[in-house]
Design a protein that fits this description.
Length: 226
């Protein structure tokens, strides 16, 4: 992600480093009362929608494979159940993020199902149609080529498989523009996308009826590959 911006805000770091923001984000998700209030105040978003979306991971049957990219600090692991019997591939561009994910997996008692992988979402090191579910929470807005990321995630998803995730949107209003500008200067945000673009990209990759639910600056998307 270093190529996103030549100028960096000191102390924040980029995603290939260990940015301060990553720890803040993880903390808010793990503390729903305070974190929920912060999400509502800062980006006018309901944190409970993240929990509900991640819970779908827990519905996968034994033997299923799920790809979480970027896994970050492992916030989506809250949906994985101990003894569920699935393979959960946690992929990220940063080794520090994978370390955080595995620490979280051990704390939740699901580390026996989690496989950490260094991976660039623009060129995923996985075979076509090799996952039953792909999750990407708060990811698209970080990628330098979000449309390419959607193509790669859909490539590795099996027909009938589910893609689900969330992203900050470029068309959530002028109220959130300062946040987007600061994020890009810090190297934390890429060019981003609009809600219409997310739906178009998913539809173009074989999702017949993509769903998009807006929540302040954030939006949650879901679709089934045809």
């Amino acid at each position: 992600m270093a190529g996103l911006a030549g100028l960096r805000i000191p102390g924040l770091g980029g995603w290939s480093d260990d940015p301060l923001w990553a720890g803040v984000y993880d903390w808010t998700v793990e503390h729903p009362t305070v974190g929920g209030a912060l999400w509502a105040a800062a980006i006018q978003s309901d944190l409970r929608q993240l929990y509900a979306a991640a819970a779908e991971i827990g519905t996968l049957v034994p033997g299923s494979r799920v790809l979480d990219v970027p896994c970050g600090g492992g916030v989506a692991l809250r949906g994985l159940q101990p003894g569920q019997g699935i393979e959960y591939v946690a992929a990220d561009i940063a080794r520090t993020m994978l370390e955080r994910t595995m620490e979280s997996a051990r704390e939740r008692g699901v580390d026996d199902q989690v496989v950490p992988r260094i991976a660039d979402v623009g060129s995923l090191p996985f075979e076509d149609a090799s996952f039953d579910m792909v999750v990407s929470f708060t990811g698209l807005h970080c990628f330098p080529e979000p449309s390419r990321a959607v193509m790669e995630m859909m490539r590795v998803l099996k027909p009938g498989g589910v893609i689900t995730g969330s992203t900050l949107l470029n068309d959530s209003g002028l109220r959130h523009e300062p946040m987007r500008r600061i994020g890009r200067l810090a190297g934390l945000l890429g060019p981003g996308c609009t809600g219409i673009e997310v739906v178009q990209w998913l539809h173009g990759q074989g999702v017949a009826a993509p769903m998009l639910a807006r929540s302040g600056a954030m939006a949650y998307f879901r679709g089934v590959k045809g």
